[in-house]
Amino acid sequence: MKKTLLQLSLVLIAITSSLSISSCTGDNDPAASTKNNITKFIFSVADNATLDQDVIGAIDIDSNAITLNVPFGTDITALQPTITISEGATIDPITTSQDFSTPVSYTITAEAGNTKTYTVTVTKESNLDSDREALIAIYNANPEPQEVLGWDINDPNLENWRGVQVTDGRVTGLFLGESENFNPFSLQVTLTSDIGDLTKLKKLGILAISISGLPDEMGNLKDFEELIAQGSNIQEIPSSMGQLKNFKRLSVRRNGLVALVVPDEVCALEKSGQLVIQTGGLSFDGPIPYCSSNR
After folding, report:
1. Residue-level pLDDT at 26
2. How many CB atoms lie under 10 A from the CB of residue 54?
3. 203 vs 210, which has greater pLDDT?
4. Rounded to an integer, what distance in angstroms lies between the CA atom of residue 146 and that of residue 155?
5. Where is pLDDT greater, at 51 or 5?
6. Using CA atoms, how far apart are residues 182 and 208, in angstroms rounded to an integer?
7. For range 210-238, the mean pLDDT
8. What digits encode the pLDDT tens for the residues 250-292?
9. 175, 39, 176, 55: which is closest to 118 by C-alpha?
10. Which of 49, 120, 125, 232 sits most deeply, having the most CB atoms within 10 A of its CB?
């Protein structure tokens, strides 16, 4: 009887130990997946009305970086991604509309609990076609574009457009009103914010044609070097141009009866030795108030 009880006790101990081991193994679940990958990242037409075709992200598995290049003019402050991740994994933040004007990070957590963070960077296409779109927008903003600009916007070759300079497939120079037939101040040109999309523009000339002012988007032109205004009646240089690290020359001459004002942000570039400001033929009394601090 005692032998039978002993054998029964050993059997119960073995069963209990087996259940305990099984329970501990379940907590760590060796079958739980450790995969925590983003396998596909897309901006689809179905979820983004501003797109005319799906944009598929390029995924670098070594750096966990995802890059997408969206068409020129896309509003990247509110894009809805479609993200495919490893089976059983979770994502944070959830895939709602995001502002991609700066890189966005996504953390993927596997079933087993290990994590991986991806960084998504979105850029806009910027090529000669986008430069053409920006110039056409400026053309359409002028009530008499043919007389003021003289561009044949149906000509696919931008180098044939009067005053447009193209280098290495991008618009690098824009000279408005350069024509011997123009009388100073008889015509006026309007520059819209679209000029800020000419991202490789280095030189802007406003010659023998009036302009009320320059848009703040001039400050977006990181490669910009030279502004020439002759017989333009220009009144003020936008303060945003004070952030341009390559701005080297500002030349304003024969400015009619208008007293040019250059803001302190731009004057600071002159004081640092980066920018040369040249003025001449301005019709007003006293020192040339080219900086707002001199007014």
Report:
1. 37
2. 13
3. 203
4. 13
5. 51
6. 7
7. 89
8. 988 877 656 678 889 999 998 899 998 887 654 433 334 466 4
9. 39
10. 232
Residue ranges of E strands in the chain: 38-43, 55-56, 58-60, 65-70, 81-85, 90-92, 104-109, 115-124, 164-167, 170-176, 188-189, 203-207, 210-211, 226-230, 249-253, 276-280
In this prediction the pTM is 0.57
Compute the distance between CA of residue 167 and CA of residue 131 in angstroms, rounded to an integer: 12
Q: In the numeric block, which tokens belong to residue 261?
A: 């004002």
CATH architecture for residues 128-294: Alpha-Beta Horseshoe (3.80)
Task: For CA atoms 208, 214, 217, 223, give the dihedral sign.
Answer: positive
What does the pLDDT read at residue 291?
67
Could you give the CA distance from residue 185 to residue 160 in angstroms, rounded to a whole number? 25
Find residue 59's DSSP bridge partners: 66
Domain boundaries, the chain: 38-124, 128-294
In angstroms, rounded to a whole number, what is the distance separating the alpha carbons of residues 181 and 232?
15
Closest CA to 229 of 212, 201, 200, 251: 251
Class of domain 38-124: mainly beta
Q: What is the pLDDT of residue 24?
A: 40
Q: What is the DSSP string of 3-47?
A: HHHHHHHHHHHHHHHHHHHHHHHHHH-TTS-----EEEEEE-TTT
Fold match, 38-124 / 128-294: no
Higher pLDDT, 21 or 119: 119
Q: Which residue is listed with tokens 């259940």? A: 19
Higher pLDDT: 79 or 288? It is 79
Neighbour count for residue 197 (Cβ, 10 Å): 23
**Cα-based distances in Å from 116 to 36, 65, 190:** 6, 11, 50
